[in-house]
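// run 5 | inverse folding | seed 20
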């Protein structure tokens, strides 16, 4: 099969022949193969045209796949061959066939599609990248100016990011102290758990409902207030082991929150989602979901989100300051107690109402320079060091390399031999036989005895490790079967991935009429609940959640 460049030259020669130029002159002009040009002019089909019906993917699907790969490369994430083949396999499965692509399928794809090629990637060490530089900012804006995004209006641009919230006040603030002192120490409340809020805003000033991730095993209904629970109806809640986001959380957020929102507003049109290059945004499942739902992912360069990302530039800073101020005014904080999750929900909702307004969100997009498009905005930031100014960034220079003597090679004469580090007893015995064939010294009885004892020790260690691994698997399976005693677990409705406020209301209604013994009363923490058996919980008019506490007569 002729190369793509040879085919281009041949087609250029054919065009000249059709315009009246002789075949010999056209072939000489374009350095094309004369036999190839003659066969094309005679109407003889190429091998590619004959095998078109035998391709795994149709030419239309291959063109769409090539267009997606080119677009993602321009937007900062050129897919690796493994990811590219994975996307092709998903596209093939979606077309209704069970055919599996081979390991060399991409070579035939690249031969058929000259617009894309396989090239060597360059790994960037994040610790050595000067994030807020003019070069990185220009790279990001060049991605925004890509042809794939040229016809997408601003209202279809979105930015998403996570914000960590500590379950405590934190930070320095003004206090009343002695007039002669310059500083006063103030004891902070106990630090609480970590809470993550995933936010998303559009270029026209719309904020999507947030996803709040708590630390824990299950969402508990006592975390939520009894009154006015409808205020959180459009929010989504989830738990994780550390209160952080994950690959599965990002994928579920795209599928359950972002895609329904954009489809209800924009229909089946392309949208742009600006985000960081975290692993949760670049895994195969999320890339396939974005491709199949017409979502372009635009990644900014690492360590420059504080200059070019909308939420970091103009939203999260105001939101955190407002949140801290509301937390200081929280009743539990005033009393010196740690704010509860219920307090965090209430103050975060109020902070979002105060900060996530139309004017603030639009101003954040303008400050980042994305809309209206003005790359001079981030370039003029005080965090950016322009290269032509000659001012060195603090800690931007790599540490000097200290020369040291090389480690002596005591077996340099054995370097040409194919001897590798043995991974076990059998490999060590094999290496001993190879060394004995190369050097008679290794045939001595003492050398052979050493190899036997060392290989035996490795075999014993391997047997011990296998036994310990089996024991660990057994204990882990027993541990997994033990379910922790939950106080009031919220059950998710079938077909849902996140907890909704309707699920929390159902869990709270299940407490109604339950008999709780006195030694179990501390295990059921209903916010605003009764302090004794004579008090009644006052909740919603239709959802009174009263627990009957009786004395424990069991012995």
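// decoded
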């Amino acid at each position: 099969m002729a190369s793509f460049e040879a085919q281009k030259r041949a087609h250029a020669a054919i065009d000249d022949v059709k315009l009246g130029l002789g075949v010999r002159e056209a072939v000489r002009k374009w350095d094309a193969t004369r036999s190839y040009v003659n066969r094309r002019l005679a109407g003889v089909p190429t091998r590619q045209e004959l095998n078109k019906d035998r391709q795994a993917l149709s030419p239309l699907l291959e063109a769409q796949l090539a267009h997606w790969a080119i677009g993602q490369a321009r937007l900062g994430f050129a897919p690796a061959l493994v990811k590219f083949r994975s996307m092709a396999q998903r596209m093939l499965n979606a077309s209704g066939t069970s055919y599996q692509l081979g390991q060399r399928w991409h070579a035939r794809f690249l031969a058929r599609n000259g617009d894309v090629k396989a090239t060597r990637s360059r790994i960037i060490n994040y610790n050595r990248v000067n994030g807020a530089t003019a070069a990185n900012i220009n790279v990001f804006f060049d991605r925004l100016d890509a042809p794939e995004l040229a016809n997408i209006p601003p209202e279809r641009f979105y930015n998403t990011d996570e914000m960590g919230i500590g379950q405590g006040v934190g930070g320095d603030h003004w206090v009343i102290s002695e007039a002669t002192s310059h500083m006063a120490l103030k004891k902070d409340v106990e630090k609480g758990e970590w809470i993550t809020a995933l936010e998303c805003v559009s270029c026209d000033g719309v904020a999507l409902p947030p996803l709040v991730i708590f630390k824990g095993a299950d969402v508990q209904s006592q975390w939520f207030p009894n009154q006015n629970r409808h205020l959180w109806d459009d929010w989504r809640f989830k738990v994780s082991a550390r209160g952080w986001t994950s690959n599965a959380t990002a994928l579920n957020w795209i599928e359950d929150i972002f895609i329904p929102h954009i489809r209800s507003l924009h229909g089946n049109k392309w949208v742009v989602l600006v985000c960081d290059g975290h692993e949760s945004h670049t895994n195969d499942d999320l890339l396939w979901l974005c491709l199949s739902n017409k979502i372009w992912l635009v990644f900014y360069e690492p360590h420059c989100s504080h200059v070019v990302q909308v939420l970091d530039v103009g939203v999260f800073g105001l939101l955190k300051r407002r949140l801290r101020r509301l937390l200081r005014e929280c009743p539990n904080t005033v009393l010196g107690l740690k704010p509860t999750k219920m307090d965090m929900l209430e103050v975060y909702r109020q902070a979002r109402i105060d900060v996530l307004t139309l004017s603030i969100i639009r101003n954040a997009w303008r400050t980042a320079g994305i809309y209206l498009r003005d790359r001079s905005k981030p370039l003029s930031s005080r965090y950016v060091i322009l290269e032509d100014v000659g001012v060195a960034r603090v800690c931007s220079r790599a540490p000097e390399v200290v020369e040291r003597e090389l480690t002596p090679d005591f077996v340099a004469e054995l370097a040409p031999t194919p001897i590798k580090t043995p991974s076990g007893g059998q490999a060590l015995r094999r290496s001993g036989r190879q060394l004995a064939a190369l050097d008679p010294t290794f045939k001595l009885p003492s050398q052979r005895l050493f190899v036997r004892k060392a290989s035996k020790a490795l075999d014993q260690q391997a047997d011990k490790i296998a036994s310990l691994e089996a024991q660990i698997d057994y204990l882990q399976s027993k541990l997994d079967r033990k379910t922790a005693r939950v106080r009031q677990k919220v059950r998710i409705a079938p077909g849902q991935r996140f907890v909704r406020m309707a699920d929390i209301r159902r869990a709270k209604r299940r407490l109604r009429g339950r008999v709780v013994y006195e030694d179990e009363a501390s295990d059921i923490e209903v916010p605003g609940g009764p302090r004794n058996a004579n008090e009644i919980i006052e909740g919603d008019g239709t959802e009174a959640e009263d627990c009957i506490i009786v004395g424990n007569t069991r012995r």
